[in-house]
User: What shape does this take?
Amino acid sequence: RRVLFRSEGKLEAPDLFFRIGAPPTGKAYSRLLSQSALPQVVLEDWGETREPGLYPSIMVEGDIESWLSTDAAWLGANTDRIWTESLISFDEKVEARIDEHLKKIESFTEWHFHRHFEKQIGRSSNLFLGNSMPIRDFNSVFPKTAKRMRIFCNRGLSGIDGLIASAAGVAFGTRRETHAILGDLSTIHDLSSLSLISELREKINLTLWVINNGGGEIFRMVPTAHSGAPQEWFTTPQSIDLSGIAKGFRLSYSRVHSLSTLETLVPETFSEEGIRLIEVLIDSTDNTRARKTFR
Assistant: This one.
């Protein structure tokens, strides 16, 4: 989706949109559909077909996993190598631009964290993305990786409630190393779940990465930022002592405030069962500038 977002107007339009599974939630794909008269073929599991944008579509129901694993489904497929190579080339240029952009910002921002976080986690881990900015920043700058991570999140309509409980459920249900990236307000909204997970310390492997940017960072990005009202009405700044909270619930606690402190947390740190709360301290001013000045 990052390539779609950055490539509008720079690549030739495709001949057909072919969607497998649920519709993307980002605006870029919806804009591409609404601005073109191209058909869309949608393959979804039985009883799951949907097209919320009401775009003209051919809807096909079936068992997606079985269909994709059938070689016959791909026999005779004709790939336009020129278009594909153009897309890959553009993606590589965007990756390079992101790295150059972040080099110009000396302080530690959420984009720096998401760009380098992948090195710290094990292969085949679960990654649970919190609502609001964590899932947006992941989508914007998380690098290409060979690690076969499984990505989880709550639906956007759920807001920021219950994210710790959901992440704990993922860790308990899959019995895999699980990392959850949450905002500070999201964490505060679900403090009662820390009592739940503290009782599971010897049964699950869960790391809570809490992005402490001093409040609701998303409200520095959306239209409310230009409303003229005092910004704190929307960002609701907080001054919670996360180290004290972790101690109260008998959770392991550490703090990240730079790339160097992030890099000290090698993958082996997260290989054993246990609950870890890692506070990621962010400069909110440069944080906003990193997002708004990238072109």
Notes: The CA atoms of residues 63 and 199 lie 38 Å apart. The first strand starts at residue 17 and ends at 20. Residues 81-103 form the longest helix (23 residues).
